[in-house]
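Subject: Sanity check before I submit

Could someone independently write out the structure tokens for this chain? I want to compare against mine line by line before I put it in a report. The sequence has 298 residues.
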Amino acid sequence: MSTQPKTIADSTDALPPPVRDHGWFRKALRELKHAPLSAKFGMLVIVCYVFVALFAPVIAPYGESQIVGSEYEPWGGQFIFGTDNLGRDMLTRLIFGARNTIGIAFLTTVLAFLIGGISGIIAATLGEWVDQGLSRIVDILMAIPQLIFALLLLTIFGTSIPVLIGIIAVLDSTRVFRLARAVSLNVVVMDYVEVARLRGERITWITLKEVLPNIIPPLVAEFGMRFCFVFLLIAGLSFLGLGLQPPTADWGSMVRDNATLISYGDITPLLPAGAIALLTVGTNFVVDWFLHKTSGLK
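---
Independent answer below. Compare away.
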């Protein structure tokens, strides 16, 4: 009785399927379990805000600009938080305000990091006249107070959402540029970067493979901080009338529209102000915890 030798394919079929490594997921859960109470509170706040922003049309009882009652209806009954100066439901406006304010602030921060982060890393990697040229442009932009500069540019170019995002992103990218350049300068002088240069690697490869992975922690922490500043700047511009324009719901403009109620002891204008403050505090809690973890301190 002859036996045929097993082929490689037969032996491969007999092997059990490969087990996927979920170590990163278990590590993330372990880190989350040992996170301080402040960081857990901040993450809970961020998750709640993101949920409200994503599902605003489903959660809100009325339309974003729908007039459903008289002006300044009191709290309770049909309107949990009353109505605003035009008779729109305050709860609905708060929910849609989360979607508009947070969404635009997030997009603005991402664009600012793309502009400032890339230019800062390139300036530190190339050096010489590229570094000097970009640094002097940033110095000129930072010499003018950001709020005043934003007000001037918005007055000239208009207050549409794309213009608002573009102007604030460019102005805020100067801060990102300074940080990205500073941390990149500490990396480009390392031996492994010099070895990559001598090996003949392209500038793109050095930037993506050598510099960027070593500056991720401070950039991620700065993203959280910068998001808070952009978020507050957009709310401030809306309060001054040069941010998001009616009938779009925005927390800054909601404070302005209902500020009259403060004179009568009504705390309705404090609702959007409190929403702004809560998100800012929650984000800072998470950023502080992340900085503590990445610093290696016990």
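---
OP: Matches mine. For the report I'm noting this point. Residues 39-295 form a domain with the MetI-like fold fold (CATH 1.10.3720.10).
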